[in-house]
C-alpha cells in the first residue's frame, strides 16, 4: 500500500521558517513527480511547489517564489519543503502528492485525485 506521510507543520510567527517533510512508502520515486499542495479554510486546494522525477525541474506558485524551496531525496524516498519568511497567507494544511511521471508544472496545475496523497500537516502562521 502506498503511503505519503507529511510532518513538520507547526505554529510559527510571521517571518519565521519551517521545513516540511513527506516520507513515501511502497513507491519508487525515481518514476514519480512529487510536490506540495495547500488548502486554507474556505479556499480551494492549490499547488505550491512540485519537482519532477529527476529533481532537475521545479515549479513554484508565484506567491512563494523566493521564499520556499522544494527538494527530494530518492534514496530516502522523501521530499522536503523549506519555507522561509512565512506570512499569515501561508496558513493552511499542506499536502504531499505524487504523480506517475508527471512534470513539475503539470503536477502542480490541479489536485488530481488519481495521484497519491498524504493526509496533510497543519501550518499556522500567527503572532
Please describe the biggest sheet, giving its number of strands, its sense, and whether it closes into a barrel.
7 strands, mixed
| Helical run tally | 1
Rounded to the nearest angstrom, the radius of gyration is 13 Å
Overall 3D shape: globular
Helix content: under 10%
Q: Order of helices and strands, N to C? A: EEEEEEEEEHEE
Distance between the termini: 40 Å
Count the beta strands: 11
Average pLDDT over all residues: 96
Structural class: mainly beta
How much of the sequence is in beta strands? over 45%
**Which parts are unreliable, with pLDDT below 50 for 5 consecutive residues or more?**
none
Ordered list of secondary-structure elements with their pairings:
Layout: E1 3-7, E2 11-12, E3 18-25, E4 32-39, E5 46-51, E6 58-60, E7 68-73, E8 78-83, E9 92-100, H1 104-109, E10 116-117, E11 121-125
Parallel strand pairs: 2-11
Antiparallel strand pairs: 1-3, 3-8, 4-5, 4-9, 5-6, 7-8, 9-10, 9-11
Describe the structure in your own words.
- The chain has one helix at 104-109; strands spanning 3-7, 11-12, 18-25, 32-39, 46-51, 58-60, 68-73, 78-83, 92-100, 116-117, 121-125.
- The protein is mainly beta and 127 residues long.
- Strands 2, 4, 5, 6, 9, 10 and 11 form a seven-stranded mixed β-sheet that branches. Strands 1-3-8-7 form a four-stranded antiparallel β-sheet, with no helix packed on it.
- The model has no long low-confidence stretch (mean pLDDT 96).
